[in-house]
Amino acid sequence: MTSAIAHLERLVGFATVSRDSNLELIDYVKMHLADLGIESRIVASEDGRKANLFATIGPPDRPGIVLSGHTDVVPCEGQDWTSDPFALRRDNGRLYGRGTADMKGFIACCLAMAREAVGRNLAMPIHLAFSYDEEIGCIGVRRLLDMLAELPVRPRFCLVGEPTLMQVATAHKGKASWRVVAHGLEAHSSRAPLSVNAIHLAVDLIGHIRAMQDEIAASGERDGDYDVPYTTLHVGRFAGGETMNIVPNRASFDFEIRHLPRDDVGLMFARIETAANEIAVKEQARFAGARLAFEPLVSYPALDTAPDQEVVTFVKSLTGANATTKISFGTEGGLYQQRLGVPSVVCGPGSIAVAHKPDEYIETAQLDACAAFLSRLVDRLSP
Questions:
Q1: What would the pLDDT profile of 72-94 be if each residue is shown by its tens digit?
Q2: How confident is the model at residue 383, as a pLDDT?
Q3: At how many degrees (to 10) do helices 23-35 and 4-13 cross?
Q4: Distance between CA 127 and CA 140 in Å, rounded?
Q5: Bridge partner list, 26
Q6: Mean pLDDT score of the chain, rounded to an integer?
Q7: Can you give the pTM of this predicted structure?
Q8: Distance between CA 80 and CA 357 in Å, rounded?
Q9: Domain extents for the chain?
Q10: Which residue of 152, 288, 309, 370 shows the fewest CB atoms closer than 10 Å?
């Protein structure tokens, strides 16, 4: 029997950075499942370069449990790795490689579990749902959810296997992001006061966003179950200007809001939009075209599952834990809950603290814990 570690070694070897194709990995998963007699449904991206995979073990005519994970990883460029990030390295109980924790370790455990599950008479099906482009905004899973919405029987629960050190997370923050494009009036820099500097427009709005963050941190909604207990605003990219002696007529920046489930991200954005209009109006006496324009980027909803919901009780019984947690990073769980009405939680091996970093790793003990968890799941669903 192929172990989770052996699967993980193969999975890490596929360099499925979000900008690249994941089809070789999907083919590997499809072939492994086919060898076990499990049929896979492939839901491709519009351009056909990437794909989601959905497979069912057990009776398809009953509500089952989705084990959901993403196949893409973040880039490694600019990071100081001590070994090849796409070749699994074993050292002192740790398995190093890009995606080991986030989140190919979980997928590897699911593939190892499939061999055990296929030989059992399951009373409820186990669905495997592996998506693309989660790292850039839960993009691929949306096409998968469109397919699931058409099924005659929808899943009963969804378990997202993101790294939580096998703790049961009942909630996570939502995210919305935008690109702001500042339009000013160019001029020779010696005539700067007679122009409108687009960088200045952008920076003035960034200052407002930072002030909003300070206000939220000081007096906004709080939830102490999160490691960052309030909604966060963050500017992650900035571009503008060509050369020093030209006042720039264009600048842009990207920002995001990662919000608590109870916070209204729409109201927060409206405040930022109002501030942008006020900043632009001050400059329009000199240049009528001065403005700050917004382009929506990616967003996904928060997850907020009540601690007494059946899915929470069920998954806690498999982990043996009494407590639950909440996570600040996002997952597709909120989309399963919002678009399909499927109660969802997050629970998977590894730590988010090492994700997206050089020398990302997962401990073999975490893989063992996940494998035991999935084995208990199979036992629970067997008569």
A1: 999 999 999 999 999 999 999 99
A2: 79
A3: 150
A4: 17
A5: none
A6: 96
A7: 0.91
A8: 9
A9: 4-172+303-381, 174-300
A10: 152
Pairing of strands 65-70, 126-131: parallel
Topology given in CATH for the domain delimited by 174-300: Alpha-Beta Plaits (3.30.70)
Measure CA of the first residue to CA of the last residue in the chain; give whole Å.
Answer: 24
**Mind telling me the catalytic residues?**
72, 134
CA gap 42, 23 in Å, rounded:
10
Specify the CATH number of the domain 4-172+303-381.
Answer: 3.40.630.10
Fold matches, 4-172+303-381 and 174-300: no
CA distance 196 to 289: 10
Which pair of tokens denotes residue 173? 């923050």
Burial of 356: CB neighbours in 10 Å, binned 0-12, 13-18, 19+: middle
Q: What pLDDT digit, counting tens, does each position of 174-198 carry?
A: 999 999 999 999 999 999 999 999 9
Residues found in the chain: 383
